[in-house]
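Quick log. Single chain, no ligands specified.
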Amino acid sequence: MFAKLHYGAAQPLDFDLPADALPAACGMPTAKPLADPQAAALAALEAPRGFPPLAQATVPGDRVVLALERGVPQAGALVAALFQTLIGRGLLPEDITLLTPAADTLGPNPRELVPAEFRKLARYETHDPDSRDHLSYLAVGEGDEPIYMNRSICDADVVVPVGCIRAAGALDYHGLFGGLFPTFAGRKLQDKSFAESLTLNRKHEAAQQAMILQAGWLLGVQFTLQVVPGPGGTILEVLAGLPSEVYTTGEAMYQEHWKFQTPRSAPLVVAAIDGAAEQTWDNVARALYTASQVVSSDGAIAICTTLKEPPGESLRQYAAAPDARVALKKIHKQRLNDSLPAAALVRALSQARVYFLSQLEEATVEELGMAPVASAAEMTRLAKRFAQCILIDNAQYALVSTEGE
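-> predicted structure:
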C-alpha cells in the first residue's frame, strides 16, 4: 500500500507498506483550503455571527487594538482585511494598533499585506509582560490575584482578538479569550497560567479557564476574528463576530475537519509537521502529544520536520533526564519559554522511543534523548522495520484516537 506524508514546505515522504501494516494514514482534511483568505475575512467581517458588522461597531476616533495571538496561519491576510474594513468606516490608520506577542514567536510579518500608505501610519506594539509601563491593572482575579493586562488593550475602545481555533482539550489551547489572556497579561500571570497548562490537570485547567473568561468579560471583548487552520499553514474557515458564537461554531468545525480514528494503536507512529511557517518547537510538542495518543506501549514515535531552531534551555536541561517525574517538576518550576515542548518531549520519551527528522545537528538531537533521522529516505526505511505503523499528516492539528475512545 502506498501512502504519503508532507513535512516542511510540502516535502514528500513516500511509504510503500503491506496493507495490514498500515492501520491508518490520516491528518489530511477533505475540505480545500481557502483560495483567497483575505476575501474570506472581509466577507466574515461584513456578515459576522451574532453581532453587527465590525464597520458598524466603530466610529471615527475610536482607538482599536487588533490583538494577534501567536501561530495564526496567513495572519497577514487577516490583518489586511481588518485594516481595510476599519479604514473604510472612517477610522484613521493611526487609530489602529496591531499588538503582537514577543516577536520571535511569530512567522511571516503580519503587516505585509496592509497597503503601504496605511502601514506607515498605524501603530505597532510588541507586548512586553515585564514592563510596568506597558501594563495596566484590570481587576482582582481568582484567589485575590491582581490581573495586569497590556495597557493598549485596557485603554482601547474596541479590542479585536485575532486567533486560531483548535479543539477543546487540545494541548495549550484555552478556547474563548484564550489567545488574549494570558498572552497579553503581565509576566506573573503568564508564568502561573503556563505552569498550570503543563500539568494537564483538570482542576488546574478549570481554574485557569475561569480566569481567562473573567479577563475577557472585564475587557468587554464583544468581537473576534478567528480561523480554522488548514494543512500546510493554510486556512479552511474564517469566522467573525460575537466570541461565544465564533468559538462554539469554530470548535465544531475543527472537529469536523481534523478528527480521525484508527482501529488500533501501533508500535510506530510517524507524525509530520507540514508548512514552512509551522516548523516550531511548540508544534513539535503538539505533534508529540498527538502521536502519543495512538502509539503502543513501549513503541516508537517519529517526528518529521525541517526544524532548524536551536532547542531552548528547558529542552537542553531536562529532555533526556533519566527521571521523568523529577524533570517535569523542574520544568514546571522554571517556566521558561520552551517549557511546553520540553514537558511534551519528557512525557513522550517516558512512553516511547522518539526519532526526529530535522535540520538540527545529529549531536543536538541525541542530547535531547531522541534518535536523529538523516533524511526522508531513512524515515521510510525506518517504517519498514515495524510490523505496523500509523501515519499522521499535519500532526500539529490532527486529533487522532483509537476507535471506541
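The chain has 13 helices and 18 strands.
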